Amino acid sequence: MKQKLTLIVLIASVFLLSSVSYHQNKADRLLGNYYIYKHETKSESKVQIYKNKDGKYEGKFIWLKNPNNPDGTPKLDKNNPNPKLRNVRLDQLVLLKGFKYNPSTDEWIDGEIYDPEDGKTYSCKLKFESDKKLKVRGYVGIPALGKSMYWNKI
To answer: Could you tell me the pLDDT band of residue 1, with boundaries at 50, 70 and 90?
Structure first.
C-alpha cells in the first residue's frame, strides 16, 4: 500500500512539474529581439525582450536606425515627464515593463509601454499573431481604447 501511494505521489509530481515547465516554455517564447517599423514616422528600431530579476518581462531598445541628432549628439528621452530621466539615450531606453504571462489567453498582460515620442506611459498587452508577428496593444483604461502595432521577431 505504501509503495502504491509513493508511486501515485511520484506520478503526480512529474505531471505537475511538466505542466509548469510547459507553461514556462510557452511564456518564454516572448524572449528575443524584434524589428519595429513605424509607418507614421518612418522610424526603424530593434527591441530586446528579456526577463528581469523578478521574472517579469521587459523590453529595451538595442538599435535605432537614426540614434543621433543632426549635430551628431545622441538622441535623448527629452519628452520624459521626469526631468531626471531626460538625459537617458534613446538607444538604451527600457520601454516595456512589468509583463506577466497569462496561459488562459496566451497573452502577456499587466505591463506598460513607454512612448518616447510623447513621453507618456500606456497600459499594454502582448500577443503573438503568428510565430514571428507580435501584436503590441497600448491603451488607456481598456484595450478597446487603444492602438496596436506589430513587431517582427528576428
So the answer is: low
Q: Which residues pair with 21 in a beta bridge?
A: none
Residue 84 and residue 132 in one domain: yes
End-to-end CA distance of the chain: 54
41 plus 25 within the same structural domain: no
For the cut 90, the answer to whether the pLDDT of residue 62 exceeds it is: yes
Measure the CA–CA gap between 128 and 133, rounded to whole angstroms.
Answer: 6
Backbone dihedral angles phi then psi of residue 120, each to the nearest 5 degrees = -110, 150
57 Cβ partners below 8 Å, 6+ apart?
A: 30, 31, 49, 50, 51, 96, 99, 100, 101, 108, 111
Q: Which amino acid is at 141?
A: G
Q: Which tens digits make up the pLDDT trace of 16-55?
A: 434 444 456 899 999 999 999 988 888 899 999 999 999 9
Q: What single-letter amino acid sits at 85?
A: L
Range of the domain at 22: 1-30
- Check residue 107 and give left, alpha or beta (phi > 0: left; psi -120 to 50: alpha): beta
pTM over 0.85: no
Residue with cell 513605424: 38
